[in-house]
Specification:
It is a single chain. The chain has a single domain, classed as P-loop containing nucleotide triphosphate hydrolases (Rossmann fold), CATH 3.40.50.300. A hairpin with a 4-residue loop joins strand 3 (101-107) and strand 4. The protein has helices at 3-10, 12-31, 48-57, 80-96, 135-138, 151-162, 170-184, 186-189, and strands at 37-42, 66-69, 101-107, 112-119, 125-128, 143-148, 192-195. It is of the alpha/beta class and 197 residues long. Helix 2 (12-31) crosses helix 3. The chain has eight helices and seven strands; from the N terminus they run H-H-E-H-E-H-E-E-E-H-E-H-H-H-E. The strands form two sheets. The protein has a five-stranded parallel sheet with strand order 2-5-1-6-7.
């Protein structure tokens, strides 16, 4: 065994994401569709982006898979619900109807929409982001994932990832996540739930 594999397996966070990815791959194969939709939800710092990238790298079906991160759709620090709504209307609904979806990236520095991106309905799709599992989005997905992770671990990872730019916004974003938990009960809408240390 290489030292790289040894160190990866010794990391509980990485190991938990590997287990999650393996179960999600099984679920994707079980859907038996050419263009399945996978939604990954969880609070900030829970590992959604890392898990989504692992799924893309180890996609179990032939051909390529599309990945959309809600960080590219949220219109600023108060935009959790608006970003989810944009994903539903511009990406998930068109994909479910066999139509091309088009969404615009949110430029956080300019506080404005930027370039447009297309989503091909014939290809599989992964969408990841906080707030994603709702009553309306869940109906448009084949595999729905919730990541549960302790607040201290999540905050450490999120601030390590985004630095001090995120620190003053952490409470404000957390309040929006709390509203999502109370309003949408995302754990109950998930087909797979994983505990991430």
């Amino acid at each position: 065994m290489s030292s790289a594999l040894s160190s990866a397996s010794a990391d509980p966070f990485s190991a938990a994401l590997d287990v999650a990815a393996a179960h999600i791959r099984e679920a994707i194969v079980g859907v038996a569709a050419a263009n399945p939709v996978v939604l990954i939800d969880g609070r900030s710092g829970s590992g959604k982006t890392t898990l989504a990238r692992r799924l893309v790298a180890r996609w179990p079906l032939r051909g390529r898979v599309q990945l959309v991160a809600l960080d590219s759709l949220y219109p600023g620090w108060d935009g959790l619900a608006d970003g989810v709504e944009a994903a539903r209307e511009l990406i998930l609904r068109p994909h479910a109807r066999g139509m091309m979806g088009v969404w615009e990236r949110w430029d956080w520095d300019a506080s404005a929409h930027a370039e447009a991106h297309a989503v091909d309905p014939s290809l599989p799709l992964i969408v990841e982001g906080s707030g994603l599992l709702t009553a309306s989005t869940s109906q448009l997905a084949d595999v729905r994932v919730w990541l549960e992770s302790p607040p201290s671990s999540r905050m450490r990872r999120a601030l390590h990832r985004d630095g001090d730019a995120y620190r003053p916004h952490w409470p404000r974003w957390a309040e929006q996540e709390e509203r999502h938990l109370l309003r949408d009960a995302p754990t109950s809408r998930a087909t797979l739930v994983f505990a991430i240390p």
